[in-house]
Amino acid sequence: MSQVGTEVTKLQRNYSSRNSIFAANFELLALIDKLKQEGMESFVGNDPKTLWSMANFLLQPKPLVHRLAIADRTSFSPDESAAILVLENLFTRIWERRNIQNLKRGSDTYFWTLIGRLLATGWYAVPFGMRADRFFVDVLEPETVFPEFSDDEEEGMISLGRVWSMPWRNAVRFIKRQQWDEKELGTEKQSPTVTFKQLWRTTVDGAVEMGVDSGNNKMFRRIAVEPGLTGIPLLVGAVAGLPVSGQRHSMQFGGHDLSKMNLPRDAKAVMGMSIMSTNEAIYDSFNRNVTFLMQLMRDTANPKTFEKTSGNKRIVEDAEAWFKRGAHFRMGLQDDLGIIQLPGIPVEIQQTLILMRNMVQRGGFNDATFGTAVEGLSSILLAQTSESAQQNLATYHTAIQFVVAHVSTQWLREIMASPRRYRAILTEIEQTAIEVLNQAKLKEISVNSLYSIRIPGDVAQRVNLAKFASPTWELSPETAFDFFFPEVADGKVEIERVAQSRAKQDPVFAAAKVIDALRVAAAEIEGTNADLARLYRSIADLRLKQITGQPGPTSPVSTNGTGVAGNVIPSAVQEEFGGTRGDRNGNA
Q1: Which of 136-150, 306-320, 562-576 has the highest mean pLDDT?
Q2: Residue 522 domain flag
């Protein structure tokens, strides 16, 4: 076996228990019926799937906000401020596009896939980098990566093994795109499925090496230094795990060896845990108790029977006849049919199920989070429900923000270091913004990517509670848009649109439109019907005077004392628009 294959296999062995836990998590998420028996009732609750789905929904960035953090500057010129805003919008555009582009692969959106795997396993694996044609970022199955971390937080991951397979046709395209050695690939008949073993590692002097083995001692790429890299271009980590430390077969907590307890074999297995792990044992007990209750109810509905006869002939030839409607049986004087009385269903079963259900909610989300019986809860209880949900999501939420911020920071530093290299994927205004910031000679620049978790109904309840506590309390329209309508990109623009819409509904606006229409119509018919054109202009002038209180443009038509052309406009129309039948003295 090659050096690459040997080291990857060694790393892979360290995570065998972790991948076993991943398989158990998948059984929970897939709602596998482990209690199924032929001809018997069994129950599988949907709590694991609904917990995962709701958590994934709540953790979706809605919206994802990027802010440039510059350590050595606190004030900026107008050009620098504009450049910072342009680059912040650049990252918003990149991530929004990447999120949707994932659908082209026949998968969910990027963030639904990334967060879903994080919630299901407690691990994330994100490759990233810069390519000539795009900002590259992807998401990998956590079970295919096997990292080794340094005890120095600044150094981070020092080696990484990755093992994955793909169909031969996809492997051909992949190897060509990576510019690896195609000769070792073979034919589709020889290898319908191609396995890759990839090794990343950092050297003492800070260089990054990478090699790829085919899994059968053939090298797609021999181990060599990757130029231009300062770290392994994959972000791998675990969240929500147990507070243990140590290596395989030696888990330490507070100086005590936990390896002899009924726990996974190594600490790596519990470094990261799924959002369902807290309730795993409760789910199993709940399913068993409900299954037992369902079988008990069937036994009660289908009682055990007996027949007593003095002869050898059976009274009921077919046991199924007991349950036929209108069944008829012939019995002798001393014969009898009856039902064996069974104990009733214990009331403690229902109490046990309620207790377990409450424990499920404590380990996951309260039923109110799903909208169940929300109208019966006070604002304070709903606020507590929201805080509980955010507590369960906190570690996963932090991890997602860290991943996006770290990848965005690496992209930013790359395009600022080599702006000409990436002109094809940057707009002119973005190129100009990079030049402005490069001229400012900023020493340390990074990207903070933030978003908040919005619990359905929580904001509305808190607003009501705030108004109850302080009747004069108000929320600005901009903040209201951010909370209730995060999909609106710019709340200020929307507020301006609302103001314009209200203006259009004002009677003055409608009158102005009428005036404009009358003058346009007068200009159109001036050459064919001069009298009607003068009529339109006179009406427009009168409308303008009514609105502004000022006389309109002088009409070429002679007018009477009211300012209305008496010999052109009929008297009925004059009365409608403020004229009279008489002269200015009121004589008829």
Answers
A1: 136-150
A2: yes
